[in-house]
Amino acid sequence: MLFELRVYHCLPGRLPALLERFRSTTLEFFSTYGIEQVGFWTTLVGENNHTLTYLLKWQDMADREARWNAFQADSDWIAKRAESEREKAIVARIENSFLAPTDFSSLR
Question: Per-residue confidence of the chain (108 residues) as pLDDT tens digits?
Fold first, then answer.
């Protein structure tokens, strides 16, 4: 089991647009490609409150590469992402980390 922690740093004022894109578009594509989310969070207190943090669950890195690459290459997803940013970009940068649970983790 492998977990991917993704942090999207939005441009000022653009977090609502990112949340709406996930809510109305991205999660449908995740479902289509079998991308399993563990949870999504916004930052209430921290270095930056213009961030969306989420956790994805994968069987292994090969599973991740196959599913994520298919999702990223989907022409409908590419068009809808571009449309959501037609007037103004949303994300300034993305961080991601791959995490392996310890033997005592409740998420295994």
Answer: 999 999 999 999 999 999 999 999 999 999 999 999 999 999 998 888 899 999 999 999 999 999 999 999 999 999 999 999 999 999 999 999 999 999 999 877
CB count within 10 Å of CB 99 equals: 13
CATH 3.90.1750.10 fits 2-99, yes or no: no
The one-letter amino acid at 78? I
Helix (H, G, I), strand (E, B) or coil at 8: strand
**Cβ neighbours of residue 59 closer than 8 Å, sequence gap 6 or more:** 1, 2
Length of the chain equals: 108
